[in-house]
Amino acid sequence: MIINLEDLRQRARRRLPRTIFDYVEGGAEDEYTVNANRRGFERYLFRARTLVDVSARDQSTTLLGEKLSTPIILGPTGLAGLVAPWGEVLAAKAAANRGSLFTLSTMSICTIEEVAAAAPSPLWFQLYVWKDRGVTRSLVERARAAGYRALCLTVDVQEMGNRERDRRNGFTLPPRVTFTNLLDVFRHLGWVLRMSSSPRATFGNFIETGDLAKKDAVSVAGFTNKQFDPSVSWKDIEWLRSIWSGPLVLKGITCAEDARLAVEHGVQAIIVSNHGGRQLDFLPAGTDVLPEVVDAVQGRAEVVLDGGIRRGSDVVKAIALGARACMIGRPFLYGLAADGQAGVELTLDILSKEIDRTLALLGRPRLADLDRSALRMEPQPAA
Ligand code: FNR
């Protein structure tokens, strides 16, 4: 029976080969930050008010002018199409059906155009800056031509994080059957069969370029480290502005100084994110950083919290701390692995129902009623 996101996670674990599940689940090095994201939410308790009329509840909001039925958007996750065939298309359709928004990763299996053609929008495109600025420019132009609403630049992948699970598993693109994973692949023949209807098993947006045009398998970290530009700096934001006239979002801000710089560079939204603990290990939990970013921004940009959301109550806490919405990664991939598009819709339904119930029990029926007075810190044990 699936009643919460942990149930979906368990089903995803059973359905996916270990190499793919570990790719989704894993973080960098000791996975301190992966776990910190969860603990961060647990440190906040609620201050509930009673005898408030909560009969009319409303969790709808807007983000960069888009109407959202629930304050949750689907984040960019590279290779979602390895979790289920046409994974990015299915997730985008699910988001549209639930009044949410889907962000397509540069590193997707499905292409910019395939997702735009299938999903009734709204869509954001997540960009990584490539050393070859011609490639970067062409990605941005393709996203514009396909009608993506905002460009979301991820700023925390100067180099791929040290994902030790992927290294141990010998994770490559396309995924290979090796002596080590033979038994595991055999146990997941359902996945192998399902994937036979996948359009491809590598990065769709670059199928014709560079190493991918050769037929050899590439290591994901090796490929990206070769292509991504580690020299990207604030002056490139000005360059991006010159080639993209729509809203610009920065994903991966974790301190007040960078939040202020983002605002000074005319960014419309900031995603407070440690990349779900997949990049720099020992970054603090998103909830530890969010208040300082919200205070630094002072309403000049919209702030989204990303990382570790597993309950509707987490979303309510983030909004009380000043976020406008939350972004999820792994939770919708669990849904996608468990039951395709319906599984992603279920992820959003579970979270949205939990948000609704939390708002009622908290005595704050609308998102606008939430502020920091809805929270208290977990008491610390005496030293
Ligand atoms: C990601 N994430 C990510 N972020 C990004 O900007 N570009 C990308 O291509 C990817 N790829 C990616 C793949 C997978 C499998 C995961 C799990 C995550 C990070 C993602 O957008 C988001 O920041 C985290 O997933 C948020 O943490 P939770 O919700 O997974 O705890």
TrEMBL record:
The keyword Oxidoreductase applies. Transmembrane segments: none annotated. Keywords: Flavoprotein, FMN, Oxidoreductase. InterPro entries: Aldolase_TIM, Alpha-hydoxy_acid_DH_FMN, FMN-dep_DH, FMN_HAD, FMN_hydac_DH_AS. Coiled coil: none annotated. It holds the Pfam family FMN_dh. The keyword Flavoprotein applies. Gene3D superfamilies: Aldolase class I (3.20.20.70). Residues 1-380 form the FMN hydroxy acid dehydrogenase domain. Its cofactor is FMN. Belongs to the FMN-dependent alpha-hydroxy acid dehydrogenase family. This is Alpha-hydroxy acid oxidase. It comes from Archangium lansingense.
